[in-house]
Predict the structure.
Amino acid sequence: MAKNDALLREVVSFFKGNAETIKKQWIKTMQARQLLMGMDVDQVKKEGERILNTYLECLETGDFTAAETYSKEYADRAIQSGIGSQQIIMDMLTLEGILNQLTYDEYGKEAEKWHQVMETWLPTSDTMFGFVSKAFVEGREKIAKQQQEALMELSTPVVRVWDKVLSVPLIGTLDSPRTQLLMEVLLQRIVDTQSRVVIVDISGIPGVDTLVANHLVRTVTATRLLGAECIVTGVSSQIAQTLVHLGVDLSGITTRASMSDGLAMAFEILNLRVVSK
């Protein structure tokens, strides 16, 4: 049923006239349910006012641009404050419940009129609820993605162990996304530090298959294209047997048993010698 313009104006006017009552009831209910524990009193009041004002603007104009903007800002603030999805949902459901009770008290004696009033404001409430829920989910996904990327960066450290010598200690599974990140970070670090030797230690990798071996080959090749020598260390006897069994050609890759052996070779390449005092 299309909205009746006169009825819409009447409902908007009714809500605006009861704005203070609505806000106070919303804040009181939310606090009683302990659903605003991440906010202080002033924040609670401001949030209640923004929610209601945004809702009334959308109801009056039919334009939900303000709702989309508010939803994203609200979700960001909620996530930063540690507010969960249940609280977000209850925020909107509480407001909807208050508006429902208010309109029933005013129009409930006339069933047909009350039904028309509900059809006037309830769709706007549901739409705004959807925007807030969507923004919260997207905000959570964004945070999760950022955390995942941060963990990937931490799991692929490129350490400068000596002048012109970089070390890459790998731990865990070496998959395609991680290898791509490793290659990007490593190549940039080679350029930034003008390093001539890179030691890739795989002693922390539980197993090696054809995919991992090919990743290593590509990493070594990319390193050499920048004029740096790449040494792969931590090749255990089990990994060596696996690589032979897989038939992976590693003849062009320099390997050493341990990180210390790799560092000793790096010194040889750089024509350096470490002596005791």
Observations:
- Strands lie at 159-162, 165-171, 197-204, 229-233, 254-256.
- The domain at 5-147 is CATH 1.10.490.10 (Globin-like).
- The radius of gyration is 31 Å.
